[in-house]
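S., here's the first fold you wanted:
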Amino acid sequence: MGKNASLIMKAFGRPTDAKAVGSNGVWTYPGMKIRDAQGKTYNAVRFTIQPTSQGDGKVIAVEVIPGAILGGSQNAGGPSGGPGGPGGGPGGP
């Protein structure tokens, strides 16, 4: 947490699902293979991105998700700042 959203984009690419939730963006990456210390397997990760005044976003939450997550639209946020809100998502201003 606290990392720039651009680092997430470099590491994982464009999210399969990106949407605005309040003033934050929520990016979901399915098709992952994540195993925790207890051996439980997760197949998606979700990042909550908070827009910053520098024009990039900051990761404020990370969640691993069990089960399949089917993708949505990469442009779910529409023209008003792109997914994730202004500066907080791919395609934002």
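And the second, which I think is the more interesting of the pair:
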Amino acid sequence: MATRGLGAMSNFDLLEIADAPAGSENLIGRSIAALATERRVDPIDVLIDVVLPDRLPLAMVFPSLIPALGNTAEGWKVRQDVWNDDRVVFGGSDAGAHVDLMCHANYPTVVLGEMVRERGLFTLERAVHKMTDVPARLYGLRGRGRVAEGWVADLVVFDPDRIASEPARARHDLPANGERLDAEARGVAHLFVNGREVVAADQFTGDLGGTLLRSGRDTETVSVPGSSAG
């Protein structure tokens, strides 16, 4: 079956099964391409024979802005070059508009686990800086993004040898039983938000330390690097 023109939607190593009925949990987190190889069939056959009968939800894995390259050596080299550009900010995308397909909200654990530890695309220190101080300064968040006296105690204590993302799974906990994707983390010993521990040993404590940040009260006016105002 021809798939030309479908772009990333036909790149079956980027499509993963996000949920499955009892007895088929081993399908969760598996890509359509991997299942096709395992079963020695075409990926379209997996969609027709496995996904469609139970209407299994799919998660699209977008590890970069160039999904057409997939999980190839060339693709990862291009990603490394893009991500190492100082003008690039991790986590800046419109995925939040697609919570049932591509918003896993797990890029920090993917960066630390796969891109730092497994692929060596960044040093640990640079990756942490790119996900903390860089966005905080760009968005003008006052007193956040660094570990410093008098600053807000938003802290993550993690095991660099274990930190990783679990496979994305479908959750039905939005209003009207709406579906969203959720990818849990492992290797997180402690997570503090505003000084309150909200995660301990990979589990939520039930404490909610977050608060709404308001422009002006919690931010500083910043100029965009490279703009006429900067």
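Why I say that: Residues 107-118 form the longest helix (12 residues). Residues 1-6 have pLDDT under 50 and may be disordered.

Talk tomorrow,
H.
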